[in-house]
Design goal:
This protein is an alpha+beta fold and 307 residues long. Helix content is 54%, strand content 22%. Helix 4 packs across helix 6 (157-173) and helix 7 (191-266) packs across helix 8 (268-285). The protein starts with a helix and ends in a 22-residue tail after the last helix.
Length: 307
């Protein structure tokens, strides 16, 4: 039977549609379109997801990434284990010295793959735990900042971030999540306290500048003293050297005189020899002229008879 004969009756100009057949087949096609997807056994679990398999509302398994084949009476729900992000604006707390402090944070987290079933059953059907993360972050920030004074909170910001990361990691583990990282922004105190901090910083910078200048002056003075001391030591060393040399010369001269005196005292011939040497020296130096005045006891030079 052709399609035309199936849905029409009569012949020629007397043809009329068979509404009963049309309605029946339409109902069958609609039912097939509705039922076929429900009966389709093949599913795809994309990368970064897990497939939660339920049967009549009960979790019966977790499918990994890739192809999943399920019977018609089971359902597959995709559950993301990719990194998610929760923004916490103006989280507030108080330091140990009662200074109010606020900060904005971005927390990146993901669901632990082995906790998918627990998270799906208790907290979220798609892996979004942002509301839990925000609540936990506010609580942790208050607890951590209460351990620090305001100056320490500023000076040890990296350690504060590490403490928040560790405490939040333990907190979110209860919800089956793991912290990837934390970014802190807009870390601030009350305006009056910030003004006081800025003033203190300026005073500290001035103090350090004055200390540096003082150290420079002290270093210059020490350098001058060292140079003067070195010059004085050099002068003293020169004077000591000269005095020592003079002492040695005087000692040598005294020793020579002592030896000569000793020799003269022991031998009259040596004394006579010295006298002769002296007279010989005078004779060698005489120019041949007699003295104009002869005094009593003065020696007369030798006369040259050939002249």
């Amino acid at each position: 039977m052709s399609i035309k004969d199936r849905y029409t009756s009569g012949s020629g100009s007397q043809e009329s549609p068979r509404w009963g057949a049309i309605v029946r087949d339409g109902i069958i096609l609609l039912a097939a379109l509705i039922i076929l997807p429900k009966m389709w056994p093949f599913y795809s679990v994309p990368t970064g997801s897990r497939g939660v398999v339920t049967q009549f509302g009960k979790i019966v398994g977790i499918e990994q990434e890739g192809l999943a084949v399920l019977p018609p009476w089971q359902n597959l729900t995709l559950f993301s284990i990719r990194a998610e992000e929760a923004n916490i604006d103006n989280a507030s707390g108080s330091t140990s010295d009662t200074q109010p402090v606020s900060v904005s944070l971005t927390v990146r987290y993901s669901i632990s793959p082995d906790k998918v079933s627990e998270v799906y059953e208790k907290y979220s059907h798609n892996g979004d735990l942002s509301s839990y993360v925000q609540t936990a972050t506010h609580e942790i920030f208050k607890a951590v900042t209460a351990k620090y004074s305001a100056p320490d909170l500023i000076a040890e910001r990296a350690k504060v971030s590490t403490d928040i990361y560790a405490a939040l990691g333990s907190k979110l583990a209860v919800y089956g999540a793991q912290v990837i990282n934390i970014d802190m922004r807009n870390f601030s105190f009350q305006e009056s306290y910030m003004r006081a901090i800025n003033s203190k910083v300026e005073q500290e910078q001035l103090r350090l500048a004055a200390e540096n200048k003082l150290r420079t002056v002290e270093a210059e003075q020490k350098q001058k003293v060292a140079i003067a001391q070195a010059e004085a030591d050099a002068v003293k060393a020169t004077a000591d050297g000269n005095a020592y040399a003079n002492l040695k010369i005087a000692t040598a001269q005294a020793e020579a005189l002592r030896v000569q005196n000793s020799a003269l005292a022991q031998s009259k011939e040596v004394l006579e020899l010295r006298r002769i040497e002296v007279e010989q020296t005078k004779a060698d130096r005489w120019n041949g002229q007699l003295p104009q005045n002869v005094y009593a006891g003065a020696p007369i030079p030798f006369l040259n008879a050939s002249k």
